[in-house]
Amino acid sequence: MRIRILGQYVHFSIAALAVAETAVCVAAPILAYALRFDDVTTAKALEKLPEASIFAVAMIVSMIAMGLYAFHQRARFLGILMRIAAATFFAGLIVAVAVFLFPDLNFGRGVLALSMLVAFVFLGGVRLVFRRLMDERMMRRHVLVYGAGRRAQSLTQLRRRTDRRGFEVVGFIRSSEDESLVPADMIVACPAALFDVVRKRGVSEVVVAIDDQRKDFPVDDLLACRLRGINVIDVVSFIERETGKVRVDMIHPSWLIFSSGFRRNTFRDGVVRLFDIVISAALLACTWPFMVLTWAAIKLEDGWRAPVLYTQQRVGLDSKPFDIKKFRSMRLDAEQDGKPAWASENDPRITRVGGVIRRLRIDELPQLFNVLVGDMSFVGPRPERPQFVASLGELIPYYHERHRVKPGITGWAQLCYPYGASERDAKEKLQYDLYYVKHRSFVFDLFILLETVEVVLWGRGVR
Prior knowledge:
Number of helices: 17
Structural class: alpha/beta
Oligomer: single chain
Mean pLDDT: 86
Order of helices and strands: EEHHHHHEHEHEHEHHHEEHHEHEHHH
Distance between the termini: 35 Å
Largest sheet: 4 strands, parallel
Low-confidence stretches: none
């Protein structure tokens, strides 16, 4: 099941895992100190609690950055161990910087190294226990779907295991107006009151998925369930909560109008703008050597007269165009016919230097200037070219709603879905973009930024 923390839906098993691993990370430095100095009294343990807390915070932040708490994480156990190792390394660097800045912290190099080793071993053990011994069915909600037509069928079409992690459908009740499109063996007969079926099957949630709710809508039955503590939710909101996206083929304008979210907060916008300015300026100060090296590499490959940057018009906030800047990663004749085209996998137009800087995301660094001047933010929907926006806006409903916020260097859709190069991909990414627009907050932005570190290090979605 999923619980709501700081306005975001989090799977209960992930929250429980985070609590268990936080305890491990707090205990690791205390245990390391005991192993190093053979002193494990309660007083000494309490004395080391500030250092242990700093180490635990550094570990949890690093593990978030490695995608270890992402609901869409699908890495195998070896991949999980590699991410834990990377998180441990970065946490060690964070603690080392903290000790340098605050010398009063009693965190010797031997204790820090032992803490990292202990944390890695025990975190790997915790992950193995959660992976193999925890019965996820014990933590899933039993869901009964009222409806068996097209909208109900969408629940049987959720392919990703992570999308189905929080619930188990115990059956579908066919409405008299619905055409049956779900497996016949999942149809549940409902000869009596709906609540009797709910109680008999141990259902904790009823999902309303009737294709035409103007006909045969079971108001009395659903009201009886709701007043007896059974959660009742419409199928669009259910899919939104479980998958982190809004199904554009199932929503109506009234759903967008009356659902929660889609708030614009002036204070929040001011904080985000200040954050964008400070961080973009700091990153420009830190990354200019890489930008100089990239400039030199492009010149060496394509000649000294070849342009290093390319400027391209994109669609920004409220559909206003702006010029985006990137390091050029394609040949000069990439669009010789003048027609815009999406990048494809193993695109032959990409140069040798371009392939490297795309994989390392260095080609995106000039966009920091776009963030600095206010055309973009760090987090938001990916800005598209006007030609694509015009065509996609005609084909995909609600496509222009993604322009209600500033475009971003990274975003929720970029984390949850690979690089899009077709109308179908654009539709899928729009569904994640709408979820972000609906639920955006400063905390959500921070989580997206942290999880982007994993995308860069592991090269996910590169083309």
